[in-house]
User: Fold this.
Amino acid sequence: MRRWSRYLVGVVAVTGLFVLVTHTGAETCTLELKRVDLSARTVSPGQLGSFLARYSTPQSFFQQLGGPQGMIVRPSTGSKPKLEFSNVIKKEPGKYVTDTPFRGVAALGSGHYGFVLDVAPSEKDEKQDEEKAAEQKEENGASLISKLSAALASPAPPRPTNKPVSYTRLYFDLNHNGDLTDDEVIEATASRTYSIFPTVELTINVDGKKLDYAFTFKVYSRVSSGYAYATASLNSAAYREGEITLDGKKRRIVLIDFNSNGRFDDAVSFHTSGGAVSSVVGDTLHIDPNSPRISRSLSSMVGGGSQHPVSKLISIDGRFFDLAVDPSGETLSLGPTSVPLGFVTNPNKGFRAVVYGDQGILNISPDDSGKVSIPEGEWRLMSYTIDRTEAPKPAVEKADEEKSVLDVLSSAGTIPAPPTKPPGLTRVSARIVGDVAPVKVVKGKTAGMRFGLRFTRSLACKVVKSFSVPERVAVVK
Assistant:
């Protein structure tokens, strides 16, 4: 068993360099590396970090086993390997049991690791024995007449040749030497088409630092009349946990390798695809988590809860902090931002918006003056919500001399007063579509962030139409 809490090679040298690049007044803490406990069935305070780390995003791998060529595309999630299998693996086992071994490359830390999935030897042997027994039985039991009948009959349509493949053996280049024959074969527990492998432990290199790491591995195969394919996934099984002191208060920190690539410093990134703003969540940081729930929505991550996407700048309790994370995740620094603050404003009261820029992603809402304090720089709008729901007005009690006979009877219980009807929900939410120019925020100055809507009042507000491109109108009917 690996010692997960031991200090790593090169800690002193790397940490010294790390401290030099943190800002004045920043607090730095050391986070202990822990392994995800998959056996836990209840959530206790001590197990909360392990539960949060269970829901990382996997690296995914696909392989087509049969059917039309080109049906299966490249992996849709996880880190895309920069190298092909032949670039990282130079020696394989002499022979595989299956005719369709599943080859792939995983990105972990600063390296790429090749792997091959195979089936257990007994599966193919039993299959061959069954086929031979069936052929022998058919040959012995067939008469001359039945053979002639079979020869004259129309040939039967061919059966699909694809069979479910139960991948239960994993060859993984654990020592990262390009040789799959000198590593222990990892055996899985499996159903016919779904296999789960035990947690795999190995040592990886992260920017020159050796790091004990762990991952889980699963594979699923599917067969139909026209095609067959297999998909595998690799999930991180290691996370970081510790404490940091902010403004004299100790805060619990849980740092998760959310994209399962062996690094803990991957920041959220943004790009435009198909006219819409898309985001790729890197790693995630939890500050004083109190729930085992984890969000995959950026809007939820920056909505004031405990979960934050790793980025240069994060907001904690309404204040902005500079965040710096060592690639191995061992050292983390948080301090009040050194970036000057400016302001943005919008004529709509009660709005909430998610904005992003080179420094990260923030959730903003105005103060009583209608302004929002925000760090200097260029910020783009990702989404917004405007809530115009009015609070119910308290009933005004009439003076005794103004009360009518009906009022007196009603108060006495003869005629019950009608209940107060709560106001209908009046709210619109929108997400940016199209290319929107950034808003430039300058120290001490106020910039207008243009988005919004007009409300058309009616008796029922059930249909909501919204446009998130500036200059367009969102209407509630």
Summary: Residues 5-21, 73-78, 155-161, 455-477 have pLDDT under 50 and may be disordered. The helical segments are 11-20, 48-53, 85-88, 121-141, 144-152, 298-301, 405-412. DSSP finds seven helices and 30 strands in the chain.
